[in-house]
Amino acid sequence: MNKRSFIYEDAPDENKFSACVHCGMCLEACPTYQETGMEMHSPRGRVYLIKSAAEGKLELNSFFRHPIDTCLDCRACETACPSNVQVGALIEETRGQFFQADPPRGLSAFLHRLFLHKLFPYPKRMRMLGSLLKFYQKSGLQTLARKLNLVKVLPDHLAEMERALPELKRPPVLASGIEVLPAIGEKRASVAVVTGCVMDVVYSDVNEATVNVLRKNGCEVWIPQNQTCCGALHVHAGDREMAKKLAKANIDAFLARDVDAIIINAAGCGSAMKEYGELLKNDKEYAHQAKQFAEKVKDVSQFLLELGLIAPKASLNMTVTYHDACHLAHAQGIRSEPRTLLQSIPGLNLIELPDADRCCGSAGIYNLTHPEMAGRLLERKMDDIPHGCDAVAMGNPGCMMQFAVGVVRHGRKEEILHTVQLLDRAYREEERLQGGEQRG
Amino acid sequence: MDKVDKNKLNAFIQFAKDLLGDMYVLHRYEDLVAYECDAYVIHKGAPSAVVFPADTEQTAQLVRYLHEHEIPFLPRGAGTGLSGGAIPLHGEVIISLTRMNKLLHVDYLNRRAVVQPGYINLKLTHSIAAKGYYYAPDPSSQASCTIGGNVGENAGGAHCLKYGVTTNHVLGLKLVTCEGDVVEIGGVPDTPGYDLLGLLTGSEGTLGIVTEITVRILKTPQAVKTALALFDDVEDASRAVSDIIARGIVPAALEMMDKTAIEGVENGNYPVGYPRDIEAVLIVEVDGIEAGLQEQIDQVIEVCRQHRVREVVQAKNDAERAAWWANRKTAFGAMGTISPDYLVQDGVIPRTKLPEVLLKIRKISERYRLRIANVFHAGDGNLHPLILFDARVPGETERAVKAGSEVLKVCVEVGGSITGEHGVGIEKMEDMRVLFTEEEIAAQTDIRDVFNPRGLCNPGKMFPQPARCVEVKKPASMEIS
How high is the ipTM of this complex? Predict the structure, then answer.
């Protein structure tokens, strides 16, 4: 009976689950508990199951796996928890056990390998994929495919994503091959920028805006060419081995040069990179460097405020609401920073989104693996967007994609933007006006 | 009591699936494990099944079936109870009310709201705040706990000092009786006849399942003022408490935490930044009409100064007040930062006995070699000693339980009681004997048997077991509709 069920490396840490005293303060913070009202789909319930498995009361079978898989890893429970129980890390470690005990098979194995092993870690392949997508959009193939209803063969959510996919106007930032971009005006800091894998293909304009905003604020920007995918999705899926490989590659790439900060504009990647220390804590060679690296990682909004934002002077007359990405608000505690940035833009009217920090259902690839639950959460999110908003701002590409799907599904008009895109827009407007003044 | 017979259970599961749909019936071992306990973790027992009715009618049908087939059952809200009331020690079927989580009606003119039992306590206040109203009972778990559970336990909270506990706010109930009939009780103030609302509120799920609750809502006070006082001596803090009340001030809340409790909350997720070397902190809140309120809080501050307070400050704004309360209200959960397990007691004592009782608790702590953190609603003398232990260490759980019982004995000895707001549940069943004679207990179980003739609804809770004669003496079953 007392045989422990976690026999693989990186087992859920006893110190982490013994801190849970089962008080239940996390229950209503959890989106899946809110939806189901079922204890095993709550943070407290999941931790209890993990504890039970560690005591040998549960086997690593599909019935135990189900509630562990339905977790969004949104960390809302960590905000609510009086005792700072690291539920996210416990879930990830448990998924690691399942990944080793029962590796993905069949189609899911194929997709896991294709995306998480063969595509995301390779910027060049991602670029190729981007070019293909662009070709698909530009060549008339997309129009044709839609006319012929070919997208129907895709699962519903993917088909909607196909419709919601932004037009890929800009080439990936990493592909420019430019390594260092000078500060505009007086140099105040030197930073390295993480371009990300999906971000740089689907939302390379967000990366461009990030680089531009940093330069405008006196940062010399370095884009390490050897960087790779952060490994967040791998950790979420329990593929810790691959995640560690990627983490090490990034540590090597970014610690090659001494910078003031490593800047990231994707909440999910940011929190994963801030947790490299935890991921590699048992690695003799990398443990120390991982901590060093993690300490340097800053979300772009966090860094700009620490540095002291040079506020844009031109106004943007827009009404904007802000959605808290889980991995910014709950995992990194970054809530006020993006709002302060938005409020620093003259003319911009920021209104609060009710329950702004409740998960939108994107959660990495959760919207693909659990479309039903993700859809329910998206529905609630769309209902919450106040009337009269021109745009919804946020700090994570996964959420942007999910909101884009919501906008398409509900025939809404709001622009879905990253916080830095609005800042960038204001700076560009400022430049345009100054240019006009000089000419006139 | 034996576990539920397998064939009987399978037939019930099929019945429940047909009635509710497959997804609302849990019966696999892995799914049931999470229901082994509520927020009281010393005793555990897995249910035979968990069912999730959507409305009163489904609840009644489930109960009727369970009654007819003599399968024990119990209602469960959020499972944040602290005395084990929702723990299925004998494999009871859990009727989970989390799907019945709606606010049905708000009647602002008559100041009442009708909610389903699974509706979250704090949501009621959030839903009516914009119109200037709130729901007063505020257990610390109010962000998660259900109003149905609050009725079951007659829950209190920090602000019950001035506003009273749940029973003072319940105006009417819809009840599924233990046999599956639906009855409505109360609804109009001062119903003639026996006060059944009073009996049902706090009956810990032993008299039936509440499926609709009409509660009183109150006008949000015009103003609130809060003071925070740090003391170097617990006795000074205790005397200040008595003195504040003696001056005729009725604070909305008067809370205290001792050094060990402070250590927990300051290590937790919502630290205030209390100096680690203080012995006690008091939070005193007054509310009401703006005029004269500042004078009241000034008086409170003055009393604290007379009792050698190290520092006393007034909340500058709502954000600061909220931070103090978030810290206080997460105190139990924050114990996880200094101990893997805790047992919380809920004794009530006359306020004036506070210094004496605290000293005795300290002695008990030393004798049992277990740390005890004290968090309490000092204003109404409701103590929450948190006995810290590690269940993994052989013998510690038993020591903690014994220490807890001794604390309760001390409370009764000075003229108090064994529970203020957490209920008896499993935890304090045996301690009921400290407070009541066998006859008094039998008189109460007689009442229970009128409502719960077959003893199927949350059996083995609240009252100590033996009293055999009482269990045998069953009144004739009421007609099953």
Answer: 0.92
Please answer whether residues A30 and A357 qualify as being in contact, where contact means their C-beta atoms are separated by less than 8 angstroms.
no
Give the confidence band of B481 by pLDDT, cuts at 50, 70, 90: very low
**Core vs surface per residue B136-164: b (16+ CB within 10 A) or e:** bbbbbbbbbbbbbbbbbbbbbbbbbbbbe
The verdict on a CB contact (< 8 Å) between B78 and A80 is no
Query: Residue B293: which residues within 8 A CB-CB, separation 6 or more?
Result: B223, B225, B286, B287
What is the pTM assigned to this prediction? Answer: 0.91
State how far the Cα of A147 lies from the Cα of A145, in Å rounded to an integer. Answer: 5
CB B304 within 8 A of CB B227: yes
- Note whether B22 contacts A: Cβ–Cβ < 8 A: no
CA distance A187 to A130: 34
Give the per-residue pLDDT at B420: 87
DSSP, residue by residue, A341-371: HHHTSTT-EEEEPTTTTS--S-TTTHHHH-H
Query: Confidence band (pLDDT; 50, 70, 90) for B466?
Result: low
Neighbour-count burial of B248, counting CB atoms closer than 10 A to its CB (0-12 exposed, 13-18 middle, 19+ buried)? exposed
Q: State how far residue A18 is from chain B, nearest Cα, in angstroms.
A: 5
Chain A residues in contact with B143 by the CB 8 A cut-off are 25, 28-29, 80
What is the residue-wise DSSP string for A85-122?
--HHHHHHHHHHHHHHHS---HHHHHHIIIIIIIITT-
The two tokens of residue A344 are 């620093």
Angle (CA) B45-B48-B49 rounded to 5° is 115
How far, in Å, CA of B435 to CA of B412, rounded? 7
Q: How open is the CA angle B385-B387-B390, to the nearest 5 degrees?
A: 160
pLDDT at B85 over 50: yes
How many Cα atoms within 13 Å fall on the side-chain side of residue B284? 32
Residue burial A284-318, b: 16+ Cβ < 10 Å; e: rest: eebeebbeebbebbbbbbbbbbebebbebebebeb
Q: Scanning every residue of chain B, which has its alpha carbon at the shortest distance from the alpha carbon of A55?
A: B392
